[in-house]
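2024-03-11 09:14:02 DEBUG pipeline.ingest accepted 1 chain
2024-03-11 09:14:02 DEBUG pipeline.ingest length=253
2024-03-11 09:14:03 DEBUG pipeline.predict start
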Amino acid sequence: MNYQYKEYLPSKPLQSYVACYWTVQFKAENSNKLHRILPDGCVDIIFDLKTPSINKSAFISELMTKYQVLDLSQNCSLFGIRFFLNTAAHFFRYPISEFKGQEVFLDDVWGNEAKFWVEDILSSTKMSEIIEKVEAKLMKFLSLNGLKTDSLLRTGLQYMVDHQGLMSIHSLSEILNYSERHISRTFKKEVGVSPKELMDIIRFQFLLKELYSSPQPHFTDVALRYGYYDQSHFIKSFKQMYGMAPSYIFITN
């Protein structure tokens, strides 16, 4: 009862850009809570709604390729905007690769504009009010920002999702009619990770969704369906993304 995670859908005009808004509320009460974050192919702007410093209350998360675990030991109230990878650059003004491997505060990217926006959000008393202010800001960015997503990145990501991450870079190269080298270079430049890493994340997300939707998943069948050549390969890959073996999470038959 002292820990809550919630997601909120964006309004229709923003659904092509924003996967969701989310909140984490935690009351310590002499206990810790592990908050597990899984790679999902998205990037976030995260607001610390209890921070004493306006300058450090909002930051941009990098594109994750493996799990993270936060040990929550103090009261916290977080609000996040989760952007789809192929559209995030509309709002960040820089390629996603620029944020790889470092914590970037929002005012380092937006300057004083970020400070005014953060102050406005922190003054809100209701979640509906926060989301309303966020959406007004995002819509303004869309109307003013002329930055376009690289068409190769956008199209390549769509094919990856359509194939549930189950395709080789060679196959992607043939479909897009670009060399494997050019595709890899473009993805590294734009998002900071290779096409293979992104396909692994996409495959993991589809696999995870199937495991959660099945009351008693059979790991061998699921592993084969998602291209794992044996169960040990499946478990090793799953642990890299989740930090735990699937048998610790799901009831199997």
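2024-03-11 09:14:41 DEBUG pipeline.report The longest strand covers residues 18-26.
2024-03-11 09:14:41 DEBUG pipeline.predict end
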